[in-house]
Every structure is written in structure tokens, then in C-alpha cells.
Amino acid sequence: MILRRFLLLLWSGLLTAAAVCAQPVSSLYDKAEYRIAMRDSVHLHTSVYTPKAPGRAPILVFRTPYGTGPYGADKFPAGLDKGYLRSYVDRGYIIVQQDVRGRNRSEGEFMHVRPVGFGDVDESTDSYDTVDWLVKHIPGNNGRVGFAGCSYPGFYALMGALSGHPAVKAVSPQAPVTDWYMGDDVHHNGILMLSDAVRFLNSMNTPPGHTPTDRMPRRELTFAPDERTFFLEHPTRADLTTLLAPNAFWEEMSGHPDYDEWWRARDTRRACYNIRSAMLVVGGTYDAEDCYGAWNLYRAMVRQSSRTPVHLVAGPWSHGAWRGDGRRLGDFDFGEQASGSYYMEHFEAPFFDCYLWARDTIDRLPPVAVFTSGDDRWHTFDRWTPAEARRMTLYLAAGGRLTTEKPTAKNSSTSYLSDPADPVPYVAASGLRRTKEYMVADQRFLAGRGDVLTFVSDPLPENTTLVGPVEAALEAALSTSDADFVVKLIDCFPDEGEKAGMQMLVRGDAVRGRYRDGFTRPKAFVPGKPETVPFRTTDIAHTFRAGHRIMVQVQSSWFPLMERSPQQFMDLWSCTAADFVPCRVTLFHQRDRASSVTVYKL
């Protein structure tokens, strides 16, 4: 009898819970829209969703340049009914969405990655003024405020932390735009990320004289018949300037080809001193857009705000995938522990519940949690890069070998001809858009190309887990005065078994050769003179299984993911199609000039 009553009560509770989960958010929350005045009298459109249930609740703010529609006090976004935001509805948070300055229904002038301290107002002061108004005017709030955002909204979430408002207790920048010159969407190590930069800066073009509107004007740009053909037919930055005009950020960017003070002012890491709110930085190891931001923002905050609780979570995710399914990318299923639901329940929800609800959940969240692909499991660390990781240098050797033994040959090199008329593709077949799957794509489609050098290790005797950055040091000579260098780290599967013979891309990144002595000091190559070209890729977290081999590929184009170099030391903003010339690249692997790739092994 007791067991039957228990089962009946349990079943009744489950039905009640299911009914609550099935309720539309409009029956659980009230919506109100406000025009919140900033200190310079500019008004920002703000939608506030407040639980109907009695009691006090924390405020979670999402500031975005992408719009907060549907607009209207009786209209609720579908994202509150299901998906990522539903988790916060079910937890009873007050949810705030705001159009940032100069976008959609907000007043003012928009500026891309507006530097902190730019004049009397910036995104941190707008965040401060917003929080100050919310805690004073929204009924039922408990005085605790958090910020969250992914991608460009990740940048705005960070501004919430930099506001310094005492009510801000927890902030989560996710895949945050951090430095558009060194990494993220626009450049990687000084090279324009062609496909993403052109598409994004065109779609986000905001003409001056903004008038609040439900829908921002957009100029469609179609990469027909496919990306590769389109960009070969528009080969120079000057061609693209004409195509995108008028575009204020693109045009201003043209005056800053090197990493000068203009770019450094837009590096958010420079402002991360003495942050008081707890931080949860989130990123994906296979994020094609903002992989750089999460790892490097985390490092800056740990260094510059040493007393602040800073957590890092990184999974095998494409851009923002932790807010959705998360577990699948291309040919790979990373398992249930890579899913968005697992992430929310084990990382993000405990973080905000602890600092905003004052619940005892933080013990579930380690300082660093990183998921390794290959063996598909989570690791926890006290810091990143892990103290227990040891440097392992892989040398590029004659005959296409990759070895941990430094070359002993007196003279040894391999060369290839880089021809801008036939750049190395980044995918097997070019489409209308850059695919997210290229980050883990099989590289066998490049077999037979003479402009891709390949170096392969022996089969590994045991599982080998690599974590942290990949540090390349290429010893090279050119037949011209400049060239780009692409380095790819690849997992070669055995010739038998699941995914037989697959060459899975683990990380690829590039550097412009002229910046080998620093990104503020471009320097031409002297044809035929050997030079060292060092650079660091974005971090990895991958286990190469026993029997697999490690492969490194070196090439000088990756098109149209990144722009082509004219392979001459000249201004890329003024070069013409005729300036693009072939270049013979010689890569040395000898005892006094040993090209290498250094990784960190657990």
C-alpha cells in the first residue's frame, strides 16, 4: 500500500512537471518593453520578461546587435518556449534582452567592437546604466544581475563585467569576439579570413544616421555560382571595397593593415583588469568563427584579474553548438556528454544558479573543464594550459616523415610552388557558404597536390592526448618577397576499421610571412634567404588513438577561407590582379634549420 501511494504520488508529480514544461512562456511570464536612457540621453530598447510567480528572482541580461524581436508587449520569442533560453524560464529568472546602441529599436550610432573608454560612453557604460535602471525599476528582482551572450553578444556580455556595477555578480562570454586581427571572424594572424569577413561585415553594415527600426536594412550578397569562383572573380581587396561600399568599418580597416594602436584598442583583453564578477568563459574547439576568443580571453582574465573566480568550459563544438544539439559535427558524434543539455545542466546553469540565486552549486563547476575529441570525454584542470601537460616537439623530416628526433642531415629541404591562380581549397567542393564542418573535414581530397607538403608520424603505440596551442616554427626561403604559411594538424586513422584511412583535421591556422618578427613590424623576405617563421595556432584538445598517426601539412593558401597573398611585399589594399605571382617555397628540415611543430601532451 505504501509503495502504491508512493508510485501514485511520483506519477502525479511527473505529470505536473510535464504540464509545467509544456506551458507556453506567455502563461508563465509577463513582458514589458522599455526605452532606458543612457547617461548621454540615448535610449536603448529593452524587453523584460518577468515571472508571474511570486517571489524575488535574479536578472539575466542578453545584449545583442542582432535584434530582440518580435517587438510588442504581447509578442514572445519562440526561443523562450524551447531551447537554450527555456532553461532560464524553467528556473524562474527575470530575462532581459536589449538592442545595443545604434541597432534595431535602440537610438544612437553603432560602432563595431567599440573600444572601452572610447569617449564618454561605450558598451561598458551602457551596461552599467542598464543594470542601474533595472535593479531600481523592475519589480521582484533580488538585486543580483548576470550577463550572457554568444559570439558578438559574447563581446557585449564581457562589457557587462567591465561595467563594474556592484549588482553584476556573474557573466558568461561565450565564443566572444575578442581580437579581430589576431583571431576570430575577420583576421587570423594578419590574414583576412575572406569568406567570413566579407559576408559578416556586409550583413552588419550600419550606415550613419540610424533611425530606430524593427528590421535593420540588409544588402544581399550572393557568392554565386560558388565561393571559390566568386572570389577568384573578385581577386583584390580593392574589388571588394567597391562591392561592399559604402561600408564604414571595411573602409576604416583599410587604413590599418598592420597590428597598430587602432587594432589594439579593439582587443578586449586589454581592459580585463580587476573584474569583480565571477566569469564563465565558453568556447568550442571546432568553432569556425570565434575559436580564438574563448581561450585567449580566459588567459587574459586569469592574468589580469587574479582574484576573480574564472571558469573555462570548452567542448568539441562548432559555433554556439553548446546551445543546441552539440554532440554532432560532420562525420563525428561526440556522444551525449557533448550535448547542449549536458552542458547546461553541468556547467552554465550551476554557474548562474550559484552566483545569482546564491545556491550551493559551484562545487559542481571546476576551474577548467575541457572535452577531448578522439576519446570523447571531459577532463578537469586547475588551469589552462594544464600544468601536467608536457611540451613535445615534432620535427618535419625528409621523406615526409614526422618524428620527435631532431634532423641530423647537413642539407635537407622540400619545396613547392604556390600559385595564386590555383590556390589550395579548404573543402573538397565549394558551395555558396563556408561550412562549419570543414573544421573536422577529411583532408584526403588534397592528395596529389604538389603545393601541399605532408609529414606523417609512425603509428602511435598508445593513446596520445594533446591539449593547448600548437606552436609552429617553420624554416623557409621564398623566391619572392612575401608569402603566407598554413599549418594543419591532422589525425590519420588506420587503413582498416571505422572511418578507415580518414585524415581528420584537428587544427589549421595561418600566418602572413611578413609578420614573422611581429605583427607591428612587417618585413620583406630577401629571395633565397632562409628565415624562421614562428606562429601559434588556436588551442586544441584531442586524443590521437593508438594505431593512428599524426600528420602535419604545410601550404601557402587556403582558399577562399582566407584571402590569397600576392606573394610580394606590398600593400594588399592597393594591389591589382596582375600583382599576384607564383612563389617557390622551400621548407628546410636539416640540423641547423629544423622546421617543427610543438604540442602539449598530457
Give the tally of β-strands: 28
> How far apart lie the N and C ends?
56 Å
Helix content: 10-25%
Largest sheet: 10 strands, mixed
Structural class, please? Answer: alpha+beta
Name the strands of the widest sheet in spatial order: 1-2-4-3-5-6-9-10-13-14
Quaternary assembly: single chain
Radius of gyration, CA atoms, in whole angstroms:
25 Å
Strand content: 25-35%
What tags apply to this protein structure?
602 residues; alpha+beta; 10-stranded mixed sheet; 12 helices; 28% strand; disordered N terminus
Describe this structure in words.
By secondary structure, the chain is of the alpha+beta class. About 20% of the residues lie in helices and about 30% in strands. It contains twelve helices and 28 strands. It has helices at about 1-20, 25-30, 85-90, 125-135, 150-160, 195-205, 225-235, 235-245, 250-255, 260-265, 290-305, 340-355, and strands at about 30-35, 45-50, 55-65, 95-100, 140-150, 170-175, 185-190, 190, 280-285, 310-315, 330, 330-335, 370, 375-380, 390-395, 400-405, 415-420, 455, 465-470, 470-480, 485-490, 505-510, 530-535, 540-545, 550-555, 585-590, 595, 595-600. It has a ten-stranded mixed sheet with strand order 1-2-4-3-5-6-9-10-13-14, with helices on both faces.
